[in-house]
Amino acid sequence: MNKINIIYWSGSGNTETMAESVYSTCKDNAHSKLLSVDKASIENINEADILFLGCPSMGDEQLEESEMEPFMETISSSIKDKKIILFGSYGWGDGQWMKDWEERIKSLGGILIEDSIISNYEPSESETDLLKSLGKKYA
Ligand SMILES: Cc1cc2nc3c(=O)[nH]c(=O)nc-3n(C[C@H](O)[C@H](O)[C@H](O)COP(=O)(O)O)c2cc1C
């Protein structure tokens, strides 16, 4: 059974809704955890077989700067060879924050095992279905 940790930051709830969709289909796996980033530690990275990381586009196409960005810096030496799926919500941009985040994960040696899931504001029904299917697939 995979240990699945879903770690996210969300300000207005859209990325949180995405995280909850993943968790809804893997929570019966006793090893799965849903953690907002302020509750997460490097241990939650090291213990995970599959890591879902979620953050919306903030600043100017950046990760949220007060919690998610420092967390990324803290965990950067633990990313190598980790199986990772990225997700998050955005507004008016073109998704550049996610492309930059993907490059950053790859440059740290992380393995992106699925295409990232991005939602324009609230996740659509098909995006929600996709997130649920990924939770189920890896549980
Ligand atoms: C301070 C701030 C900065 C933002 N910057 C961007 C941005 O650069 N590009 C973009 O597409 N959306 C931007 N957004 C829109 C958010 O990504 C969008 O509202 C998203 O749904 C928020 O996700 P959340 O509900 O999980 O917090 C910004 C929102 C805020 C509040």
From TrEMBL:
<dbReference type="InterPro" id="IPR008254">
    <property type="entry name" value="Flavodoxin/NO_synth"/>
</dbReference>
<keyword id="KW-0813">Transport</keyword>
<keyword id="KW-0249">Electron transport</keyword>
<feature type="domain" description="Flavodoxin-like">
    <location>
        <begin position="4"/>
        <end position="139"/>
    </location>
</feature>
<keyword id="KW-0288">FMN</keyword>
<dbReference type="InterPro" id="IPR001226">
    <property type="entry name" value="Flavodoxin_CS"/>
</dbReference>
<dbReference type="Pfam" id="PF00258">
    <property type="entry name" value="Flavodoxin_1"/>
</dbReference>
<dbReference type="GO" id="GO:0010181">
    <property type="term" value="F:FMN binding"/>
</dbReference>
<comment type="similarity">
    <text>Belongs to the flavodoxin family.</text>
</comment>
<protein>
    <recommendedName>
        <fullName>Flavodoxin</fullName>
    </recommendedName>
</protein>
<dbReference type="InterPro" id="IPR029039">
    <property type="entry name" value="Flavoprotein-like_sf"/>
</dbReference>
<keyword id="KW-0285">Flavoprotein</keyword>
<dbReference type="GO" id="GO:0009055">
    <property type="term" value="F:electron transfer activity"/>
</dbReference>
<comment type="function">
    <text>Low-potential electron donor to a number of redox enzymes.</text>
</comment>
<dbReference type="InterPro" id="IPR010087">
    <property type="entry name" value="Flav_short"/>
</dbReference>
<dbReference type="GO" id="GO:0016651">
    <property type="term" value="F:oxidoreductase activity, acting on NAD(P)H"/>
</dbReference>
